[in-house]
Amino acid sequence: MRPTVRLALPVSLLVLALSACAPAPIYKPTANNVAVPPSQVAREPERYGSADVIWGGRIVNVRNFADHSEIEVLAYPLDGSQRPQANDTGNGRFIAAMPGYVESLDYPSGGLVTIAGRLNGTRTGNVGQAQYTFPLVSVNQSHVWTAKEMSGGHPNVSFGVGVGVIR
C-alpha cells in the first residue's frame, strides 16, 4: 500500500471525530437570508431591503418601550454553530427589535446572543459622541448563550511530543 493511502484513513477518521464534536447551528437559514455583516447593511441598506439575517454578538444594552424592546448588539462573526466569536473583530452594531417587554436580566449587558430575524431599515443614533447608522432587525428567534454553551463543542484534544512530570 502507498504511504498516502495508509495515512488517508486515519486522517479522515480524525477529521470526522473532531467535526462531530461541534454542535449543529441553532437556526436554519431561509431562502431570503443574506450572509453580510451589519456594517455592510448600514452602508447600503437599500441593497438588502427586508432580507433575513442570522447575526450575533455582545449585548450592549436593552431599552424597553410601551409596545416593544430594543437590544443594541455589537456584532461578531458566527462560528459553524452560530455562536458569536467575541475574540474576533467586531462587524458593526445593530438593533434587535422584539415585541413586548424584554427583561434586561435575561439579556444582560455583556452577554452573547444570536438572533434570527428580518431587516427592517436603519436608524441613526450615537455610539458615544459619534453618529452611527444601526441596521434594525425584527427578531423572530433569539438565543442568549451561557458560558457552558460557549465552551461546549470544543474538543479537549491536544497533540504533542515531549516529556512531562506529574506530581
From TrEMBL:
It comes from the Bacteria. The keyword Signal applies. The keyword Endoplasmic reticulum does not apply. This is Outer membrane lipoprotein. It comes from Luteibacter jiangsuensis. Residues 1-22 form the signal peptide. PROSITE patterns: PROKAR_LIPOPROTEIN (PS51257). Keywords: Signal. It holds the Pfam family Slp.
